[in-house]
Description:
Elements: E1 5-10, H1 16-27, E2 36-44, E3 56-64, E4 70-77, H2 80-100
Parallel strand pairs: 1-2
Antiparallel strand pairs: 2-3, 3-4
Helix pairs in contact: 1-2
Amino acid sequence: MQIPLQVTIRGMAASPAIVGLLHDKVKSLEHFQRHIMNCRVIVSKPHRHHDRGAEFEVSVEVRARGHLDVVVNGQCDADIQVAVRDAFDAVVRKLTERVNSFPRGAPALGG
């Protein structure tokens, strides 16, 4: 079963490459899939900062059963691929922390 993905892109055109990258990153969450109900990603390109230049900002919200909702806000980088990678790395880290914090005997998130 595929994890439902909602993509919002602000301040720039939605390219097939960006959307494809996001779908690939959501696929990487498949080992948590049984409990993930949906994933929402917001990619924005805020106004140019004079001192840093334009940066991409990526936020990810994963809704899951068992109070495992994960929100990662505002991973920024001048390279959109780096911002997406960092955001999804943070999602995996948070999901893993929450799974590992389950008491023994509780159903595992991935199993």
